[in-house]
Design brief:
The protein has 254 residues and is α/β, with parallel strands linked by helices. It has helices spanning 18-27, 43-49, 71-81, 103-119, 132-140, 157-165, 182-190, 220-231, 235-250, and strands spanning 3-7, 32-37, 55-59, 86-95, 124-129, 148-150, 169-172, 196-198. The protein is globular, with a radius of gyration of 17 Å. The two termini are 22 Å apart. It binds zinc ion. Residues 6, 8, 36, 91, 201 line the site of zinc ion (ZN).
């Protein structure tokens, strides 16, 4: 079993060949896809996509979109969260690298969505870029911190350990295959595999073999292969354990 825990297949970059892309994923051994829909303008399109077999979905407001978020978006999010195939709230978080939305608005929108996730008993998929210190401080304030994943982790091993101790999983994606990604390779090899999820974040972040091209879920096998190698275990075992991690966090009946 292979789960790509983070895809954006509703993205317009797949409009021309979405069916073929999904088919290539399932043909290459991927068994389940988690579609991540984090722009309110795209929610309906993603909801439609998630009606396919073996596809689940997460809804949220990305920090990039935080400034545009309207009151009605939060109401709609609450209704989408209880959907049959909705597994999480996300991706939500802080992005101080691009700063597309003012930081105080990013924080406000993030915290509000943490509240929605808690109310509906759903895990969260967290996007965090150049904001790990603040993210840790913010999450530590919760007596019952949310359950979830720090998606596409790009922090240090020390930060990884803090998140893992708080109960979060860490999402490993394409950059782990890049020759110069020593920091991420260290995280993937030192953090116990029971704390890791495998993802593509397609269409972004294609693994080394396809670097510069559009990423797609079939390439998640490259991420798994690299992770297995770093862990010194077989590809099958890495696939089985990380898929189990994903099932335990996201697919348990709440
Ligand atoms: Zn993403």
């Amino acid at each position: 079993m292979i789960i790509d825990t983070h895809v954006h297949l509703s993205d317009a970059k797949f409009d021309a060949d979405r069916d073929e892309t999904v088919k290539r994923a399932f043909d290459s051994g991927v068994t389940v896809l988690f579609e991540i829909s984090c722009d309110p303008l795209e929610w309906d399109k993603a909801l439609e996509f998630s009606k396919r077999d073996n596809v689940y979905i997460s809804f949220g407001i990305h920090p990039h979109e935080a400034e545009k978020a309207k009151e009605e978006d939060f109401f709609k999010l609450e209704s989408l969260i209880d959907g049959k195939k909705t597994i999480a709230v996300g991706e939500i978080g802080l992005d101080y690298h691009y700063d597309f939305s003012p930081r105080h608005i990013q924080r406000e929108v993030f915290i509000r969505q943490l509240g929605i996730a808690a109310k509906h008993n759903k895990p969260v998929i967290i996007h965090c870029r150049s904001a790990y210190e603040e993210m840790i401080t913010l999450l530590k304030k919760y007596e019952n911190p949310p359950k979830g994943v720090i998606h596409c982790f790009s922090g240090t091993i020390d930060e990884a350990k803090v998140f893992a101790e708080m109960g979060f999983l860490l999402g490993i994606c394409g950059p782990v295959t890049y020759p110069k990604s020593d920091k991420l390779k260290q995280v993937a090899s030192e953090i116990p595999i029971e704390k890791l999820l495998i993802e593509t974040d397609c269409p972004y972040l294609a693994p080394q073999k396809y670097r510069g091209q559009r990423n797609e879920p079939a390439y998640v096998t490259e991420v798994l292969r690299q992770t297995a190698e770093l862990k010194n275990i077989s590809f099958e075992e890495a696939a089985r354990i990380t898929a189990n991690n994903a099932k335990e966090l996201f697919l348990q009946p709440s």
